[in-house]
Amino acid sequence: MPKISIVIPAYNVGNYLQECLDSVRNQTFSDIEAIVVNDASPDNVGEVAAQAAAQDARIRVVTNNPNMGTHRTRMAGVENASGEYTFFLDGDDALKPDMCEQLAAEIDKHPVDVLHFGLTVVATNDLLENERQAFETFNNTPTPDSTGEDIVRDIFDESRGYKVDWRVTQRLYKTSLLKKAFAAMTRDRLGRSQDGYECFVVSAFAQSYHSCKDCRGYIYYYGRGISGTNMINAAKYARYCGHFKADFNAAYEFADAQRSEMLHDCAQGFQRKATEILANDWKVRVPEEEKAEAAKQMEAVFGPAITGRELYRFVRDDAYALLSKGQLLPTDANLSNWFGIANAISVPTDRVSADTIRFHEMKRIAISHMHELTEKSNNTEAFQNYDKQNIRIFVTAHKNVDRFDSDIMQPVQVGPKNERFPWAFHDDEGENIADLNPRYCELTTQYWAWKNINADYYGFCHYRRYFDFSETVHEENAFGEIMDDYIDAKAAKEYGLDDNNIAHVVKQYDVITTPFGDLDEIINKYGSPRALWEAAPLLHDDDLKRCYQILCAMYPDYRKDAQDFFNGNKACFCNMFIMKKEIFFDYCSWMFPILEEFDRNTDYSTYSKEALRTPGHLSERLLNIYLMHHKRISSNWKFKELQCVHFTNPEPAEELEPLDVFDKPIVPVVFAADDNYVPQLTTTVYSAMKNADPSYFYDVVVLQRNIAWDKQERLRDFFKQFPNMSLRFTNVERELSGHDLSTNNAHISIETYYRFLIQKLLPFYDKVLYLDSDIVINGDIAKLYNTDLQGKLLGAIRDIDFLANLNVKHGKRMGYAKNVLKMKNPYDYFQAGVLVLNTKAMRERYTIRQWLTYASNPAFIYNDQDVLNAHCEGEVLYLPWEWNVVHDCGGRVGNLFVQAPNDIYDAYMRSRNNPQIIHYAGFQKPWTDPDCDFASIYWRYARETPFYERLLKRVVKATAPKAPVIVTPAKPPRAVGEDSPIRKIIDPIMPIGSRRRELLKSIGRTARGRR
Predict the structure, then answer these.
(1) Looking at residues 687-698, what average pLDDT do you find?
(2) Is 819 helix (H, G, I), strand (E, B) or coil?
(3) The dihedral of CA 40, 45, 47, 49: what is its sign?
(4) Fewer CB atoms inside 10 A, N or C side of the chain?
(5) Distance of CA 192 to CAs 236, 318, 378, Å?
(6) DUF4422 domain: which residues (predicted)?
(7) CA distance 487 to 647
(8) Alpha-carbon gap, residue 185 to 253, rounded angstroms
């Protein structure tokens, strides 16, 4: 028995077979055999093989008749192999002389079932060198040793990332393993992806695997045969699809025969990865004019979901590649064609599967990238307008922010560019120092503009801070800044931030800066720039001194200006300025060499993040010194100081997007809360999900303004236990801006108005469930959501508290309902803590501005609830009482509710026996009164949440006994008053506390009958 058998399938490789067999015969290790399987090759394969066999007894020839294909040819070779180990050698490849010697030595050290070796790749047929290198690098990457099922899973399990390739010809196998595996394989003819199928079956039987990629004696001629990159037409591509499908079916049949769920998953992984490889041929090898037809052929074999996903994958990847280059180019024509072909594929929405879910997810990302690319292309026109400007104010930004409608103010992206903003210039294009941004901050924008932009005026500001070009003097804070909130049209009007006005102001001056503030009055009143620097805890005092010394050495005539500045009390800040071209160029030529010299003499290795920004901080001081110098030497520049506006919320408004969930119907649920109410919110959402139907997906959206990020993260982590929900937070601050909203009830918070925003914030839903956060949910809210609203604006439950008050004798509530709310039937008044909203109809009927204007009415008692009742009367579907059971707060069930209409009262009482939602409406809450009505049900949910202890703390605080009031007993009245003339006689002879005085008081008590 030879040590190693070499199986050589041979078909149409007559031009290469001689080289292949010579390399076998010339092996330095002689204990081998070679089985050449002639697969009825029409060329001279038979003659070459026969001649070699005649010359070397170790070579045997097996002939197929008729042609059987590579899979069956390998099978025949394995059946004839007699060696202890076997590997496959393609007839158009070759071996280095010591290949078998290396394998024998390695297998003796590691006697495993499968030994995975490396390759030496030789490029043929004009293959590019970079392709050759990439292929060789990939196939020679070390892989981990493994045993048992890990062998097949490392290759085919998608969740493991396909850690190991499935090249059958790159492995040495124990021959007994190969014989067992091939005996279990299909005897059908297979095609292109047969390697994957064969490796799948062999690996499933293997028990030990070892990698030795340093052994690279197999010479692989990349570009020959089916591994080539020559173009193929749609018909040939269709045949490839059929081959792959047959291989996938064979893999599934094998997994089923083994009755292994793990192997079935791996077969699925094989299909997905191999389909990507097949689709790559569509992208690279099918001509553009035949791609649509080839896609149809692929769809006919694999279906629309799998085909569509692969085409959208190319759109995603190529669109992202264009975006990442940061180039303002039109969309690639081929990419547009692929996008059109992909969009033409229709995936039925009524058939949910893993493939359809993957399709929709890939489609979503691809469309997003294409939209961004289109936006970027559209921005080309904007950049062309920018280039026409002779006044250019650059706005430095490192994140996505709102921008004013201006051609003069031009954004420049700085810092790390994991996402390149298509609407911005980039400081790493052209001549630049972008890599210095962590130290130089906004100076990388200034340097980029200096070296790459031609204009008459150069200006600089920040995504948060802008000049105030208006003629109005605005109030400033203690740091000399105007504070405002949003970058929008209102702010543009307020601060004159339109191009006509900006140009009008700029052209009047040579230099514009922020105000030179008095440091005796602003910025904590440190008094001088030197003192301000020394007070900064993260800046090094020595850095300021060294910069001063560098300045004086390089520009001695600036020494006096530097001294006057550091010892004076005036400075402008923020590195904001606008200068004429000649001044700006002179300034840059002066400043950057100073900072470069400072950099060369500074060791930043121990600097904090803020200290690293020292060059940026120094540049603010250098700007002041530069301007002071030119004022001193009378450069005759026209100066102007403009106020600085600081926008606290420059980020774009948050926009919620529809979820990509296709396997379950979605139930959108909205809550409103603030940071203080997070524990209650958590309990409410948890109770909902504990009772939720798993066949639905719950899109939980929390409207908020101030919930801390760490709490949001804690909630997201906690609710990961429910795979059928998502949890999203959205800030509504901007939507409420400009509206004077307050509540007239101590138990109602400002968050109560958030429900009016739902129709705008979730435009992709026609119906939404709104729930208060002081409830617990015992039923499945999907049932509530699925209520047919019959065209009404909303579904709600009548408010028994309000209805009972209508019947109170004094009639005040009835008068309020009729005269203030203008209700025709006050007994239709509903409670707004549980609402099924017909958001589509509400959008058609009312705007957000209308709702919030209504809500600003100070005459309303119950604020938003009154607004909804006043403006939705007659458009309400009344829901079963069980869905909003208000608890017995302060004994109102027995004292007040009994005054409600009889049928209403009875319906409410029945609902208490089976409450689907319990609403703790009123001043008594479980977290303030743990003995209140239905409190035990609340705590059943609360104690399972991560904020349980916080709720307990509130209970303790609310129920702790008040500190006792210490009352000092009143002293008995004196027998003789303070002002009595008798005191003047008695006190000298009988002082207070003396025995005489006590004897006198005793006589007096006896005389009055007291003891």
Answers:
(1) 96
(2) helix
(3) negative
(4) C
(5) 12, 26, 43
(6) 392-630
(7) 7
(8) 9
Task: Write out pLDDT tens, residues 93-118.
Answer: 999 999 999 999 999 999 999 999 99
Strand 644-649 vs strand 482-486: parallel, antiparallel, or unpaired?
A: parallel
Q: 4-230, superfamily in CATH?
A: Spore Coat Polysaccharide Biosynthesis Protein SpsA; Chain A (3.90.550.10)
Residue type for 139, please?
A: N
Strand partners, 512: 578, 640
Burial class (CB within 10 angstroms; exposed 0-12, middle 13-18, buried 19+) of 235: exposed
Whose CA is closest to 70, among 182, 184, 221?
Answer: 182
Whether the CB-CB separation of 480 and 522 falls below 8 Å is answered with: yes
* Phi then psi dihedrals of residue 212, to 5 deg: -140, 70
Q: Tokens at residue 454, please?
A: 């031609």
Q: DSSP 3-state helix, strand, coil percentages of the chain (rounded to 5)? A: 50, 15, 35
169-214 pLDDT tens trace: 999 999 999 999 999 999 999 988 899 999 999 999 999 999 999 9
**What percentage of the chain carries pLDDT values higher than 70?**
91
Using a cut of 0.70, tell me whether the model's pTM lies above it. no
Instruction: Name the phi and psi angles at 269, rounded to 5.
Output: -65, -40
pLDDT of residue 996: 46
Spatial distance between the Cα atoms of 4 and 100, rounded to a whole number of angstroms: 8
* C-alpha 739: how far from chain center: 31
Residue 515 is predicted with a pLDDT of 94
| Residue 865: burial class (beta carbons within 10 Å; 0-12, 13-18, 19+) | buried
pLDDT for the residue 96: 97
Share of the chain above pLDDT 90, in %: 72
Q: What is the torsional sign of CA 857, 858, 864, 868?
A: negative
Closest listed residue to residue 773, CA positions, set 669, 911, 656: 669
Exposed, middle or buried by CB within 10 Å (0-12, 13-18, 19+), for 619?
A: buried
Poorest-confidence range of 552-561, 599-608, 831-840, 858-867?
858-867
Q: How far apart are CA 172 and CA 141, in angstroms?
A: 17
Write down the pLDDT at residue 351: 59
In this structure, the chain runs to a length of: 1011
Contacts of 286 (CB under 8 A, 6+ apart): 231, 232, 233, 234, 237, 294
Structure-token match 């049932």, residue found: 783
**Which pLDDT tens digit goes with each residue over 505-532?**
999 999 999 999 898 888 888 889 998 8
Helix (H, G, I), strand (E, B) or coil at 89: coil
Cα–Cα distance measured from residue 894 to residue 401, given in angstroms and rounded to the nearest whole number: 57
3-class secondary-structure state, position 209: strand
Q: Please, which residues bridge with residue 798 across strands?
A: 830
Q: How many CB atoms lie within 10 A of CB 876?
A: 21
Q: Which fold has domain 666-957?
A: Spore Coat Polysaccharide Biosynthesis Protein SpsA; Chain A (3.90.550)
Number of other CB atoms surrounding residue 486 within 10 Å: 19
